[in-house]
């Protein structure tokens, strides 16, 4: 399937989570076997081309796409988790949200020092979560130079924010607006 065909599998939900937002829902893509396989193949090919020795994914939908791409490439998957989900000592990173803060955690033993890790997530909007994940992975010893996303919302500036953090950013598709 082409990126344009995959884009047709994304459901747009108006006014979610608040009025004026056009929510881009990847669950309809995930629920389409051929679409999920095609998106995974595109991400895996881009990660291979970037020299990935491991794939990191951000909880929760980044786990779906990232783990599938890692399995396709036969490389390790590094989960970037929400707080309190890992049963070992972790590295943690707090980051700002629109209204407050949140935290991401990673098992430092999941990354080999100097390992080339590609970050994969379902969507890049403002880039706050992805930026924090990149910083956290780098603190764990990873070399993170590439971020791959299923969807980019360019108007929200997240991809540009990541480029400012020395990350090459690529997405399968983009949607204009919020």
TrEMBL record:
Top enzyme category: transferase
Pathway this chain belongs to: Purine metabolism; AMP biosynthesis via salvage pathway; AMP from adenine: step 1/1
A Pfam short name: Pribosyltran
Domain annotation Phosphoribosyltransferase: ranges: 32-142
A GO molecular-function annotation: glycosyltransferase activity
Superkingdom of this protein's organism: Bacteria
EC numbers for this chain: 2.4.2.7
Gene3D superfamilies xref list: 3.40.50.2020
Principal subcellular localization: cytoplasm
Catalyzed reactions: AMP + diphosphate = 5-phospho-alpha-D-ribose 1-diphosphate + adenine
Keyword field: Cytoplasm, Glycosyltransferase, Purine salvage, Transferase
Alphabetical list of InterPro entries matching this protein: Ade_phspho_trans, Adenine_PRTase, PRTase-like, PRTase_dom
Subcellular location, record wording: Cytoplasm
Signal peptide start and end residues: none
Assembly notes: Homodimer.
The family this protein is said to belong to: Belongs to the purine/pyrimidine phosphoribosyltransferase family.
Function per UniProt: Catalyzes a salvage reaction resulting in the formation of AMP, that is energically less costly than de novo synthesis.
Protein name: Adenine phosphoribosyltransferase
